[in-house]
Amino acid sequence: MRVPPWAQRHGHPVQLGRRPEDPAGDDPRRCGPPYTRSIVSGLAFISYLGPNTVPIARQLGDRLTDELAIDFAWEPATWADLQTAIDSGAACLFWMCGLLTVESIDGGQLDAEIVAAPVFPGETASVYRSVVIAGRGSEAQSIDDLRGAHLAINGTGSWSGYHSLRAHLAELGSFDRLFGSVTETGSHDASIDQVLAGAADCAAIDSSVWDDRNGRDPRLKEIRVVGRTRDWPAPPFAVSRAIDAEMRRAIAASLTRSAPVGLEAIVPADDADYDLIRRGMALARDVAW
Questions:
Q1: Residues 98 and 202 in one domain
Q2: CA-CA to 153 of 20 to 30 Å: which in 38, 49, 209, 250?
């Protein structure tokens, strides 16, 4: 396989060391479980979403290896490693929560451009939403019926597990406190488990995670969906501006030619597509919680 010139320019693999003492799920702000990373000739591909995306990210890593003649190496990592990758500039490709991506870019922590977005199974565009669920003991028929309930969220930095529900309430003109209490669980799956166990009355769940688990866990028949938010742009792929333009274009083109198992497609996207999340976050801040 021919190694293109831009791949030759990026040196040798850099290991972003995982600290053994860091437990999985070490930060409640996360959007998913420990992400997967790929070392790419000194650069990393970081996927930090729900477990349903890990096989997809692995397929994409293999495709990039085959198409772009770059050697990828996979291993688990933590929130602390994600921060290290962003701060050090070692990563070339990110697939993360849309809110985390735009806030990192807007805040200057991440110098990257959004180039693509996934089309999840059953969707016709690169969108997703929050699914609001209630346990078998709940009589709620709508989100408004959950007033005073105990809500489970995966983390305070999550869009689909937290802020999109706040933005949804704001769009309905509901700014007063709705829920009686809120618990951070650390992941969407853990929030579902809390509702199943009766430890939480309700939860906001990433629709792609919900659909994936609903297809393989019969216990979810005990849970009812009482509401959904509007569609939001799906978690984007962002390419670091620290690498040269030729390589950025090659990565973006490879992604949008991909059709990995677990997605309908990957389509082009840009920063402006995520202004909807920026506007939603501005609304969410005004909702009492």
A1: no
A2: 38
Give the phi and the psi of residue 186 in degrees, each rounded to 5. 100, -20
Q: Please indicate, yes or no, whether residues 223 and 144 belong to a single structural domain of this protein.
A: yes
The CATH number that applies at residue 136 is 3.40.190.10
- Give which of 258, 244, 230 is closest to 10, Cα–Cα: 244
Q: What does the radius of gyration of the chain's CA atoms come to, in whole angstroms?
A: 19
- φ/ψ of residue 128, rounded to 5: -155, -175
Structure tokens at 105: 């870019």
Q: Is the pTM of this model over 0.70?
A: yes
Residue 181 lies in a domain: yes
In a domain, 63, yes or no: yes
What is the predicted pLDDT for the residue at 38? 55
DSSP state of 11: -
> What angle is formed at CA 57 by the lines to CA 126 and CA 191, rounded to 5 degrees?
75
- Cα distances (Å, whole numbers) of residue 148 to 53, 156, 194: 33, 19, 17
How far is the C-alpha of 25 from the C-alpha of 185, rounded, in Å?
Answer: 10
Residue 118 inside a domain? The answer is yes
Q: Provide the domain count of the chain.
A: 2
Quote the CA–CA distance of 35 and 20 in Å, as a whole number.
15
Query: What is the residue range of 149's domain?
Result: 128-232
Q: What is the pLDDT of residues 97-121, one digit of tens each?
A: 999 999 999 999 999 999 999 999 9
Whether 282 is in a domain gets the answer: no
Q: Measured between alpha carbons, how far is 154 from 203 in angstroms, rounded to an integer?
A: 9
CB 61 within 8 A of CB 25: no
**Average model confidence (pLDDT) across the chain:** 84
